[in-house]
Design brief:
The protein is α/β, with parallel strands linked by helices. The chain contains 3 helices and 7 strands; from the N terminus they run βαααββββββ. The protein has a 3-stranded mixed β-sheet. The protein has a two-stranded parallel ribbon with strand order 4-7.
């Protein structure tokens, strides 16, 4: 089974940190930032009225499941519901019925379910599906008292060359 773990991808070692003077500095550091951004986008909860934000996740999943070669069977990403938790999403092509069903069609047979020539798949066992409903999310806040006075300007040193 091939799954893309966004958490591991985000923290992947892309080699030594480039020098700020490297002409490709922003290109090299941008990759890591992009992977972080992508992981956060996929992880972000979809709020009512903002279902369009789900499109980013859907497009990425569709690409990985159907267009990337070799294709992925699913993705792993961090959970927003449980700190330190992860979500595993498997794409539809890895699931099949436990017992194949066949029926005749013009000049042959149609097979629904696992075929002998298929790659390994996850087999659905009837009655094993469990739905988890999230009934609430706990939000935490930190209080910070803002000072009533204006910040004092700190003089900066002047360098003459």
């Amino acid at each position: 089974m091939r799954v893309l773990d966004f958490g591991r991808l985000e923290s992947a070692d892309l080699g030594p940190s480039p020098s700020f003077f490297d002409p490709k500095y922003f290109e090299k550091t941008g990759r890591q930032e992009f992977l972080r951004y992508l992981h956060n986008e996929i992880t972000a909860p979809v709020n009512p009225g903002n279902q369009r934000s789900y499109l980013i996740t859907q497009v990425i999943a569709e690409y990985l499941a159907t267009h990337y070669v070799p294709r992925f069977d699913g993705v792993i990403f961090k959970s927003m519901q449980k700190e330190g938790g992860q979500n595993l999403v498997l794409f539809s092509h890895v699931a099949c019925e436990a017992t194949p069903m066949t029926w005749p069609v013009s000049g042959g047979y149609y097979v629904r379910g696992r075929k002998a020539s298929d790659a390994r798949r996850i087999e659905y066992v009837n009655g094993s599906l469990i739905k988890h409903t999230i009934k609430g999310v706990v939000f935490g806040t930190d209080e910070y008292v803002l000072p009533e006075t204006l910040p004092v300007a700190v003089p900066q040193p002047v360098f003459d060359f």
